[in-house]
Amino acid sequence: MGKLNIYSIALGLAGLLFIVVIGMIISGNLDQAGPFILGLFALLALGFNGYAKMKGLVFTTMIFAGVTAALYYPAYFTNFGDFKYTALIIPLIQVIMFGMGTTMSIKDFAQVFQAPKGVFIGVSAQLIVMPIVGYLLAQFSNFPPEIAAGIVLIGCSPSGVASNVMAFLANANVALSITITSLATLLAPFLTPLMMKVFAGEFIEIDVLAMMWSIVKMIILPIGAGLLFNRIFGNRVSWLARAMPLISMLAIGLIITIITAAGRDSLLEIGGILMVLVLVHNVFGYLLGYWYARLFKMSEEDARTIAIEVGMQNAGLASGIANSLGKIATMGLAPAVFGPLMNITGSVLASYWHGRPTRENPGPTVVGP
């Protein structure tokens, strides 16, 4: 009971800080609200941690705290002496991909042969829906070319491991989700540069081969190393399987914070509009992904899976691509905004579906007295 009181008190204090922040915004003192906003997110994270239904929001809340810190105190997140923190982005992504590889095996791809229809529909939905919606939003945005290209980039990226977690929470087909994520990720070095050439070529110059090699270094090599590590050591390093999700989350949070600090000035100028466009992109991914699957007579469980796989993209990889092109402060902004937002919308959607079991997965049977 004591612990619950601590969590409740934290949420209560967060409510008070929220009122303070709103008051500062109304009075035109937003530039001095940094410490209060940071305190708000820290208290929300503590409070959410005490309630099972809200635990999924702790990570996202902490990311927003990191973004706030980067916006108000960018000097702490841009460089240390002559060392620029953007140099950490690609190694951090490689760590995440290595962790993904350690959890994979050849068995994960058995679904391709056992249920090829679902895998094909899921991957094709990613390749059709998100790049086209991203292109249309970039055209509509009137943003500078490099920022607009970032919207297209997030649409041309594969889904990330967060989608697998959301599929589990949404009573969806987790095996299908893992297979689609894995296959789309392994195809990314070849398909993402080609799609960027088609959909973003009018915004920035795309060197397809250079982008392919960049993505191979970020995805194929570390995933391959992870697969080999898993093959050699297997269950003897079970602690790594438990540690990698936390390490990956911390890496993603750090990547988003660094990108926010690097592109702070541009983000302050167009942040509100960019947030709306990115949210539209994300929500349309869920909506069109779901109905694309239903169009092909997929089950409710599989349609939920494909909706989540389409709507939740690998923002970390997109950030790494932007960084490899030397455009992290512009092209990297859309992925930096997309990451936190998709975790919020994904959690909300998963919670909604979790309370509505499918006929294929009816949930626990209640036995009467």
Automatic annotation (TrEMBL):
Location comes to: Membrane
GO cellular component: a single term = membrane
Which membrane topology describes this protein? Multi-pass membrane protein
Q: Which UniProt keywords apply?
A: Membrane, Transmembrane, Transmembrane helix
State if Nucleus is listed as a keyword: no
Q: Which residues cross the membrane?
A: 7-26, 32-49, 56-73, 85-106, 118-141, 147-167, 174-196, 208-229, 241-264, 270-293
Q: Which InterPro entries match?
A: BilAc:Na_symport/Acr3, Bilac:Na_transpt, Na+/solute_symporter_sf
Q: What is this protein called?
A: Bile acid:sodium symporter
Q: Write the lineage as a comma-separated list.
A: unclassified sequences, metagenomes, ecological metagenomes
